[in-house]
Amino acid sequence: MQDASDPERADLGEIFRRLIRNTGPISLTQYMGESNARYYDSRDPLGQGGDFVTAPEISQMFGELIGLWLADMWIKGGRDEYVQYVELGPGRGTLAKDALRAAAKYGLRPQVHFVEASGALREVQGKAVPEARWHHDLSTLPMDVPLLFVANEFLDALPVRQLVRTGEGWRERMVGLDESERFVPVAGARPMDAAVPAEWQDATAGTILETCPGAAATVYEVAGRLADQGGAALFVDYGHARLQPGSTLQAVRAHQKVDPFAAPGTADLTALVDFETLARIAQSREVRHIGTAEQGAWLRALGIEARARTLADKAPHYAAEIHEAMKRLVAPDQMGSLFKVMGLASPRWPGGAGFSSD
Ligand code: SAH
Question: Which end of the chain has fewer CB within 10 Å, C or N?
């Protein structure tokens, strides 16, 4: 792991403590947003030696099958020569590199755009995909060409907002300090009943409702671009297919779950993605929701088993490793069920392999 943390930089925990002492509890959204901005900007957290491993880092097959999916969409959509590839939160650039190599075999050689906030990761991405152009957010992406969006484990890192039912009604869930100056979740002072749907008003005390405004805004923007400009999008993440109550906030460091409130800025904070709500948001912009499939089923439908056999035949010494990697990606008790793939497309772009609603 490259840890470029600046020792001169003030400890984020101290900054939050001072803020809370002076002005009272901060929102969980602020806590998570600033923690992750600090976390990603100071290191490359991916891989065996880092904090967590993602699908493209497990096997090249993941990115390759995404590249094939995009090429198939592009061919069915009329092979627009100006089409561009956009990846949100590309990590080490591994997925993009594998996807673009696979897509090129079908004639798809798009310009590459990366939406990435982290300086440390931009540097790593530049080594994998030197021709990429970087953006801080979606607003600077080209406005007049079809776009092929990919986002793997991006939405789960965006800050969530939580509401909690107390004896006095609904409140925002905030972060305060206990008597030992440790961070603890607390209920905010202001009533939030108006923000909660009618069927949840009388939920039992302690019920939590979680939303992710950043994920909603991202999908709203992507869907708008697809409707106006043409193209398709794949969002892959761990999440529920249906909205459920409860906090899903978790922190991971060195491949272990840790307390999200222990040391802000030093662990990856994530929350499950609510794909049901995101599909509804996409459809509100008149984009085609191709489907939301489990990752295992989707990769199988795209031929991961055949791809694994081909790779194993080419490199017999690695056959067991290749098989093991495939299992990690597709087995229901590993990433196969918890991770979902949501496919979106412009209404003018047909197709969308791997979703059972085909
Ligand atoms: N897609 C990669 C990395 C996942 S980690 C993979 O699958 O391996 C999350 C990625 O999103 C990192 O690249 C991180 O720096 C980026 N990221 C997190 N929050 C972001 C934000 N608000 N804006 C832009 N990028 C963000």
Answer: C
